[in-house]
Write a structure and sequence with these properties.
This protein has about 325 residues and is an alpha/beta fold. The protein has 2 domains: about 5-270, Spore Coat Polysaccharide Biosynthesis Protein SpsA, Chain A (Alpha-Beta Complex); about 280-315, no CATH class. It contains 14 helices and 12 strands. The strands form 3 sheets. Strands 3-2-1-4-7-6-8 form a 7-stranded mixed beta sheet. A 3-stranded mixed beta sheet has the order 5-10-9.
Length: about 325
């Protein structure tokens, strides 16, 4: 009997094509397992849903179930999300970013463990060992974020994980009513939440997270890319931040591999579907520059002291906030 691996992703229509590539990569690298893939969608059209369902014809081991979540957010959490997204201001985050916190509301009660994947992840090798990881005594298992040192300091945590790949213990989430836990936490701590759902998971489950090897969420940025062989040996590769292989103007490691999965998935040559205009690049640069030029409170000073030499740090004007 073939092993069943349950996977879930959360998207709106902006990430439809990247998610198709994610799903196809998972199915094609796990031919000895039955892949049951749940897609939690916001604002997906009937045509979008049909594109996702047609993926089943490409892989005999794949079942895709599309679940519409468009109208199901509580009004208070929706107000908070609007506030958060307006303040984020870079156009990269959407309501779909937060759905992973509320997957209990949409998944069948007989699913006890599930693998969450962002739509900017591709699978390069078998998920068997990851899926068999024992998380009985944990809320979830995940890989540390590449910016974990800064975020551990910011939130006073011993570890800080990236939420793009999560092996989730749904039995435990149901036991503690995780939906209620997350909603209350967001309402009461909105001022300290900077990295959205990722902060929420790290703070709510700080003592119940199993740290996984980096190969289960190989986070790709130009500056942390050691060698192609290291990345290709990983199980899951994550194109984090703005480093998306489908965005025109981006140059990122393993773009060719992502394109090859796209072409295998859709049976057609790759063409860019989105650009990264100069205006957006300028906004991103200014936002990053503000870390050094804005008045600094005690936390920001601590971060800069850790990441900058003292001779550079003392040049910045420091003001109490």
């Amino acid at each position: 009997m073939m092993r069943q691996i349950s996977v879930v992703s959360c998207i709106d229509s902006n990430f439809l094509l990247p998610l198709c590539v994610t799903i196809h990569s998972v199915a094609s690298n796990n031919i000895n397992s039955n892949i049951f893939y749940y897609v939690l969608g916001i604002g997906l059209t009937d045509s979008d849903k049909e594109i996702l369902r047609r993926l089943e014809k490409k892989s005999a081991n794949l079942t895709v179930r599309v679940i519409d979540t468009t109208d199901s957010f509580e009004s208070d959490i929706k107000r908070f999300l609007v506030w958060s997204l307006e303040h984020e201001g870079n156009g990269r985050l959407t309501f779909a970013t937060y759905i992973r916190l509320f997957i209990l509301e949409y998944l069948p009660s007989d699913v006890f463990k599930i693998l969450y994947l962002d739509a900017d992840v591709i699978c390069l090798n078998s998920l068997e060992k990851l899926w068999e990881t024992d998380i009985t005594n944990y809320a979830l298992a995940a890989v540390e974020d590449i910016s974990s040192e800064v975020n551990k300091l910011r939130l006073n945590l011993k570890q800080y994980i990236n939420s793009g790949v999560l092996l989730i213990n749904l039995s435990y989430w149901r036991e503690i009513n995780a939906t209620h836990l997350f909603l209350n936490f967001i309402r009461e701590n909105r001022l300290i939440i900077k990295l959205h759902d990722q902060d929420v998971l790290n703070l709510c489950f700080k003592d119940k997270i199993l740290i996984l090897p980096y190969s289960y969420n190989y986070q790709l940025l130009g500056e942390n890319y050691n060698s192609k062989s290291d990345a290709m040996a990983s199980t899951l590769v994550h194109f984090i931040a703005f480093h998306k292989p489908w965005v025109k103007g981006n140059s990122c490691p393993l773009k060719a591999e992502w394109i090859s999965y796209y072409e295998a998935c859709f049976g057609s040559k790759w063409h860019y579907v989105k650009s990264f205009p100069i205006k957006d690049r300028s906004v991103l640069f200014i936002r990053r520059l503000s870390l050094f030029t804005c008045p600094m409170g005690s936390f920001r000073r601590k971060v800069l002291k850790r990441i900058l030499p003292h001779q550079i740090l003392k040049k910045f004007k420091q003001k109490k906030v």
